[in-house]
Design goal:
With about 100 residues, the protein is mainly α. Helix content is about 45%, strand content about 0%. Helix 2 (about 25-30) crosses helix 3 (about 35-45).
Length: about 100
């Protein structure tokens, strides 16, 4: 089901996509509405599944990692969960 978003909802999403830590008070100030109104809109967007979560981006080199690998595996469906568990058990695998 598609949810109808108005311009304020779209602006909130845009601001949070740029910086998920943007304070509610800052969003309210930019939109010219109260922080309570922003909070209600955020709750609606979360409840409707538009916003699934908030995250951060990490600079791996600042944490001492010298290289990063994105790995794809071809696994038979019946072995998928076992393969995931095996990979997750490695201390050098972060996610």
């Amino acid at each position: 089901m598609t949810i109808v978003l108005d311009e304020k909802d779209k602006m909130i999403i845009d601001m949070l996509m740029r910086n998920s830590r943007t304070p509610i008070t800052e969003i309210a100030r930019r939109l010219g509405i109260t922080d309570v109104a922003v909070k209600k809109r955020l709750e609606k967007l979360e409840r409707e599944g538009v916003i699934l979560g908030y995250t951060i981006k990490i600079n791996p080199s600042k944490l001492g990692y010298e290289s990063i690998a994105i790995v794809g595996l071809d696994v038979e469906p019946e072995h998928l969960l076992k393969a995931i568990d095996e990979i997750k058990a490695r201390d050098y695998v972060k996610y």
